[in-house]
Structures are given as structure tokens and as C-alpha cells.
Amino acid sequence: MLMSQVPASDRPRERLAQQGAEALGDRELLALLLSTGVRGKGAHELAEALLGRFGSVAAIGRATAAELSAMPGIGTAKASSLVAGFELARRGSAAAGRPRRLRATTDIAAMAEPMLRDRDRERLIVISCDAALRVIGTDRISDGGTDQTLFPLREIIVAVLRRDGRSFALAHNHPSGDPEPSAEDLAATQSAAEAAAVTGLCFLDHVIVTETAWRVVPVSR
Fold first, then answer.
1. Same domain, 19 and 87
2. Among the three residues 78, 94, 110, which one is the final residue of a domain in this structure?
3. Which of the residues 28, 122, 136, 196 could staple to 201 if both were Cys, CB 3.0 to 4.6 A apart?
4. pLDDT score for 117
């Protein structure tokens, strides 16, 4: 059934206007993000196909634009809309829980968790602060594999200096669920601390985040 054949009172857009987004199911919300269907298949049917292919809304939110656009009827434009919608949701969630100043390592973890949660690949972010440890911005530095990430020192330092930062913290996720740092994590953290000292920056901490825990990566000062 095409959306034009659905009674107006049952259409997602009209229901959202009358009852609020909370009244809509996952399929209806996805259909609104997709906006339109394709020949012979409505947006709600595409939404149903997405849920069937990926298994859940969370899994769709983790999918890349390439993975989404490979679905019949989705294409580049619809995939981009989905990725943008989920990214905005993550940023809104992150902003709501972010501390304005990093007073302790727990604040670094709280700042990083919304940006690293629900991802099946490792991601490295840098949190830049001023001299008073007020957060002035966060930047994604790299995306790696399921069990490794890249630590490009130059990109880390440039990201902090570009924001006129004076101190910074690093965070990355372990999709495996094990928060313990690897040998590569230890070596990369030590290198980041040394690079910070050379450039006159203050390295705060590096935390590893999982879905249920976080750990600090130790470094020799």
C-alpha cells in the first residue's frame, strides 16, 4: 500500500503533528526520515525492509551510508538523510550530558561516551580545553576497525591548536566490550603525552569506553 492510499489520520506525518513523535513506532519514524518511497514501494515499506535487513533501529544508526545505499530503493540521498538524522540524535544526546569543564577523569568519560557508544568500529576523538579546562570543542580524529584504531599524532595536535586549545584529552571505544588497554593503546598514549609536551600543550588523560565501563590508559609523566 502506498502512503497516498493510507487514511490521512493514519499517516506518520499527520500523526506526528497531532500526537507528537512519541506516538510513532520505529517504522513510522524511519519512513519520515526517508520522506518518499520508490516506484511500487512506499516509504513505510522501505522502512520495514531496513528493519528486516539490519534487525533494529540501533543497528541502522550504526550503518554507514554505503551499507544503507546498498539496500534496494534506498540510494545515496535517502542513505545520507538517515545517517544525518542519527548523527544529529547522537550529537543532541552528547550535548545534553556534556560537562562544561573537565574537573576529573570521570568528566572525560561522560563527555566521550555519547560519541562512542553503539559503534561497531573503534573511533578516536580529542576533547580540546582552554587553560581553565573548559571544553571548547570535540573532534573525531580517526575511525579504525573492530579491534584497532589509528592514533595520528599530527592530526591530534592540529585539532587542538585549531581550536586554540591549551589542553586536551583523548578517548576511544572498544566494541569488544573489554576496556583494558592494548599494548598499542599504551604506546600511542605515551606518544601523545610526549607530543603534547613538545608543543606546549597539557595532556589530560586518555580513556577507553565500552557500553558498560571505561578505563584510563596509564602514561608515564
1. yes
2. 94
3. 196
4. 82
Looking at this protein, which amino acid is placed at residue 134?
R
User: Low-confidence residues of the chain, pLDDT below 50?
Assistant: none
Sheet arrangement for strand 123-129: 135-143, 123-129, 167-173, 202-209, 214-216
Do 61 and 156 lie in a common domain? Answer: no
pTM, 2 dp? 0.61
Q: What count of other Cβ atoms lies within 10 Å of the Cβ of residue 117?
A: 15
Question: The domain spanning residue 32 has which CATH number?
Answer: 1.10.150
Per DSSP, the residues of 82-125 read: HHHHHHHHHHHHHHHH--SB--SHHHHHHHHHHHHTT-SS-EEE
Does residue 221 belong to any structural domain of this protein?
Answer: no
Burial 20-35 (b: 16+ CB within 10 A, else e): eeeebeebbbbbbbbe
Digit-coded pLDDT (tens) for 69-128? 999 999 999 999 999 988 888 777 666 555 578 989 999 999 898 888 888 889 999 999
The torsion region of residue 95 among left (phi > 0), alpha (psi -120 to 50) and beta comes to alpha
Query: How confident is the model at residue 44, as a pLDDT?
Result: 85
